[in-house]
Specification:
Shape: globular
Number of helices: 8
CATH topology of the largest domain: Rossmann fold
CATH class of the largest domain: Alpha Beta
CATH superfamily of the largest domain: P-loop containing nucleotide triphosphate hydrolases
Distance between the termini: 26 Å
Strand content: 35-45%
Bound molecules: adenosine-5'-diphosphate, magnesium ion
Number of strands: 21
Structural class: alpha+beta
CATH architecture of the largest domain: 3-Layer(aba) Sandwich
Helix content: 10-25%
Order of helices and strands: EEEHEEEEHHHEHEHEEHEEEEEEEEHEE
């Protein structure tokens, strides 16, 4: 089992990092928390940029730190992408990329120049200088440069936070592609719920230098004791697979994974092959509840569900209802008035009417 086992203790004047546990060393794991919660410090400990005496780090069974044994940063098979791309201004993009590539002996290279350049859409930039690219394009170069060092683990520290909204939108699909097309595990630091929801498979919630909770994305987003379920944008992310297409209506049906009830969702058409894994985001405020299956309605997605829990929302007149739709959870935000009228309570069987779904990849 590939994993990252860690036990870090680091004391600063007015901050201490105390984290211990195990993370999956696969897919995208997001370290999420407010500014100052210790995300960057945690990442720096993993990179060996903080010595953190008395700490321990074992990656895929290999000891990177334990007792007096401390593997230097340059010996760790990691790539690091920072908030702002630190490219060499006097070198063209091609030379910037070759810089990382040439550091690795040919026999140890696991990725090819010709794979990485199209993966990040850099074909037309190779002859340009960094100042001739937009911020988002430069960040794509920084990611490619990190990949070309053939890392076994990619560390990304708020790689989108210095970008404007448009550049963020431009770069997100490349990150999704990176996730889909390479098996490289990524630790991704972010304070943006939106990015986390789009990218992360696994989530680590940081608060005050410690880990408040960690787990699979769907289970953390829908937990009543965590702040994510109280946001205006509270949502659930469902893992699904493409089941069929209906070209006449320009829609695609996706089957919800591990769903005992064999439930399907209708989403806008997406040209993916059958069985292709996708993520579907459903906002709590887009889900209403009914006691009967509505036939005469324009809502396409109606799922039988069981009430797991009813808990307070961030608004005095609404509550959040957590629903089990056969293995995975979604949230529904309804008024307290509806809660009373419909007698919503634990274990009640209801129909979740989903007004809108977003297919993420
Ligand atoms: P985050 O990345 O979650 O915003 P950081 O890990 O950067 O948080 O910072 C955690 C805490 O450590 C903050 O209170 C910050 O002010 C403090 N800190 C960060 N770097 C240093 C440093 N080099 N020296 C002293 N304190 C620091
Ligand atoms: Mg930080």
């Amino acid at each position: 089992m590939s994993s990252i086992e860690f036990d870090f203790h680091l004391r600063r004047e007015d901050f201490s990092l105390e984290v211990r546990g195990e993370l999956p060393n696969q897919g995208i794991t997001a370290l999420f928390g407010t500014s100052g919660s210790g995300k960057t410090t945690f990442l720096r400990c993993i990179a060996g940029l903080e010595r953190a005496e008395g700490s321990k780090l074992i990656v895929n069974g290999q000891t990177w730190q334990s007792g007096s044994n401390f593997m230097a940063t340059h010996q760790r098979p990691i790539g690091y992408v920072f908030q702002e791309a630190s490219l060499f201004a006097h070198l063209k993009i091609r030379q910037n990329l070759e810089y990382g590539w040439k550091r690795i002996p040919a026999a140890q290279r696991k990725v090819d120049f010709d794979e990485v350049i199209p993966l990040l859409g850099l074909e037309n930039f190779l002859k340009r200088y960094p100042h001739q690219l937009s911020g988002g394009q430069r960040q794509r170069v920084a990611i490619a440069r990190a990949l070309l060092t053939s890392p076994e683990l990619l560390l990304m520290d708020e790689p989108l936070s210095a970008l404007d909204l448009e550049s963020k939108q431009d770069i997100l699909p490349y990150l999704e592609r990176l996730h889909d097309e390479s098996s490289l595990p990524i630790l991704y630091v972010s304070h943006s719920p939106d990015e986390v929801v789009r990218l992360a498979d696994h989530l680590v919630l940081m608060e005050n230098g410690s880990i408040q909770a960690q787990g699979e994305i769907n289970s953390l987003l829908t937990r009543s004791d965590l702040s994510l379920s109280k946001l205006d944008e509270a949502s659930a992310v469902l893992k699904c697979r493409v089941a069929s297409h209906d070209p006449q209506y320009h829609v695609t049906y996706v089957a919800i994974d591990d769903c005992g009830l064999n439930q399907k969702l209708l989403v806008p058409f997406k040209d993916f092959p059958m069985q292709h894994p996708v993520r579907v985001r459903i906002l709590a405020r887009d889900v209403s509840l009914a006691m009967q299956m509505q036939e005469q309605t324009s809502i396409s997605n109606i799922l039988p569900a069981r009430v797991v829990e009813v808990f307070p929302s961030n608004s005095p007149f609404q509550v959040i209802v957590k629903l089990d739709i056969g293995g995975q959870f979604i949230l529904s935000k309804i008024t307290k008035r509806s809660e009373a009228l419909l007698k919503i309570e634990k274990d009640k069987l209801v129909y979740a009417q989903v007004k809108s779904v977003a297919l993420m990849r």
